[in-house]
Amino acid sequence: MSKIPFKNKYGPWVLLAGAAVGLGEAYTHALAKRGVNIVMADNRAELLKDLASRVEKEFGIRIVTIHIDLEQQKAAKEIIHAIQDIDCRLLIYNAAYSRIKSFTSYTEKELDSFIEINTHTPIKLVHAFVQQLKHNKHSGGILLMSSLVGLIGMQLVAPYSATKAFAWNLTEALHYELNVYHIDMMACIAGATATPAYLETQPRYGLFKPAVMKPDEVAEQALDNLGRKTLFIAGLLNRMSYFILTRLLPRKAASAIANSTMRKMYRHKIEKN
């Protein structure tokens, strides 16, 4: 059976939340290469506008930008309202709030940001997007970005780790509910990725160095596996690490190794707190 072209299956429009920088920029290029039009939502207006202009010219696609703070309570409702007359068949939620510090050093505002950006807005957006697809009797897809740190509780990123576990659990559950409507659900579980946000944390590697992927590698692999996998771990080395930690070692040992590695990578962060 021949594979259905990406544009035929998930086009003509894709909604990308968290589109302007890092993985978002990589997704923008990867989608444009596949010939689909993109609704780009992000809170960085100038970067959003510049990227949209460049991609439209390079690939000859159409782009609609939505300048919006995904932390605000009504973000999902405003986005869905903005695309109600646009034939979007695929939602990619790439936006994430992440900080590296000891748990007691987080402010209440920071904890709210984890909840709003990483859980509240995506679940509301997914719910509304599915309702729109069902109303229009369209098939489609939803891709949520998760993280390897969501598979094992990790120190120094405790709120991020917890909210990323939320993403892949939501995906796995909805896979079974939405399959009947021909809506593909997938969580892309990424490891360390050389985005500006990750590089700014200045990780210091010891004996165990994570496999740091390029953003475009993650985006391409995720889109290639959408509709084929429900939980997809980007990168062969990341999949091998996950297998060793979760299949060959007791969870207690796996957690100890992962947390020891994290502590060594960010010992300088602990010393500042």
Quick rundown:
The protein has 273 residues and is an alpha/beta fold. 51% of the residues lie in helices and 15% in strands.
Walk me through the structure.
With 273 residues, the protein is α/β, with parallel strands linked by helices. It is built from 11 helices and 7 strands. α2 runs parallel beside α3 and α2 (23-33) packs across α8. It is globular, with a radius of gyration of 18 Å.
The total domain count is 1
Uncertain runs with pLDDT below 50, 5 residues or more?
A: none
Which value, in Å, is the CA radius of gyration?
18 Å
Q: Would you tell me which CATH topology applies?
A: Rossmann fold
CATH class: Alpha Beta
Extended strand count: 7
H-E order: HEHEHEHEHEHEHHEHHH
Mean pLDDT: 94
Name the CATH homologous superfamily.
NAD(P)-binding Rossmann-like Domain
What's the shape?
Answer: globular
Helicity range of the residues?
40-55%
Strand order of the largest sheet: 3-2-1-4-5-6-7
What fraction of the residues are assigned to beta strands by DSSP? Answer: 15-25%
What characterizes the major β-sheet? Answer: 7 strands, parallel
Tally of contiguous helical segments:
11
> Structural class given helices, strands, pairing?
alpha/beta
* CATH structural architecture: 3-Layer(aba) Sandwich
Task: Give the helix/strand layout.
Elements: H1 6-10, E1 13-17, H2 23-33, E2 37-42, H3 45-59, E3 63-67, H4 75-82, E4 88-93, H5 108-135, E5 140-147, H6 158-178, E6 183-190, H7 196-200, H8 215-225, E7 231-233, H9 236-248, H10 251-265, H11 267-272
Parallel strand pairs: 1-2, 1-4, 2-3, 4-5, 5-6, 6-7
Helix pairs in contact: 2-3, 2-8, 4-5, 5-6
